[in-house]
Amino acid sequence: MFLIDFAPAAHGHFLQYVINNYIFNINCKFDIFSASGAAHNTEYNSDYNVKSIIDYMHCSSYDQLIPKRYQKIVYIKHDIRYDYIMLYNSYDRCHGFLPSNSQKELINAMHDDILSEPNDIRRRANWYSKLMNRSGFLTDQVSKQINTDKPVYKFKYSSFFDVNLFYAELQQISKFFADTFTPDDSLAHLHQKFLDKNDGYSSYKKCMNILESIHLNQDTEITTDWKEEAFLNYNLTKIYRIHSGDLFNNDYPRNTKIIYNIVQEHLRLLDKNL
Questions:
Q1: DSSP state of 251
Q2: In the chain, domain spans
Q3: Mean pLDDT of 211-237
Q4: pTM for this one?
Q5: 46, exposed or middle or buried, with CB in 10 Å at 0-12, 13-18, 19+?
Q6: Res 143: pLDDT
Q7: How far apart are CA 125 and CA 114, in angstroms?
Q8: Based on CB atoms within 10 Å of each CB, which residue in 44, 107, 139, 230 is the most buried?
Q9: What is the dihedral of CA 137, 142, 147, 151, to 10 degrees?
Q10: Are 113 and 216 in contact (CB under 8 A)?
Q11: Element (DSSP H or E) covering residue 74
Q12: Closest CA to 83 of 33, 15, 144, 158
């Protein structure tokens, strides 16, 4: 038997299904996406679980030993450029969507501090701090490295978001297992559905577009939630060294020109004080 080791929200269920059907060719295809958009329907298909050749666990994230029965391991290696996608999906997908998962309490506990915050401004500040300091879930679960003497293939998390990179990684996995990667158009359609249902990825792209509009001083209306506002502030801090003010303390601006003007005033004062 083989194993996928991954942090919560790192798309291990999806990768398992793809490896089983397009490398090991178990020929058990069905709608894997649950109401949350995650590929958690794999947990409830008994025929699929009987045929599955590769399992999944969160061993590294929770300092658990790799069980001896697994001969080779695929480890999903996170890319810090996509911390926000992991954080977003871990909140929206994992909390309350894991009725049969033995690690439900551990996963849900990641967000106790957010759920206890009194308002969205405080929640925004909480996530901003997590992104800036890479704290909480991002260090406690996501960044832990696999520790085993068994053969390991480190799958690049970033490849999930580009079909060409995704296929290239699957080709390498097939070599790792001494098998053959046999995609057809159904995998391309499945991957597109994966992206379409990936709320974290959609939110990431939305924020990138907003940032571009800010840089260009475009007149663009903004509709964001506290999670997206935290990510925007994280990027604005990294780019412009802006750490405080209206973007952090008040209701968020609803137009990119307003944010552009806030940034320009900050830069003017920053230059004056140097």
A1: S
A2: 1-78+145-197, 200-273
A3: 97
A4: 0.89
A5: exposed
A6: 74
A7: 10
A8: 230
A9: 160
A10: no
A11: strand 72-77
A12: 158
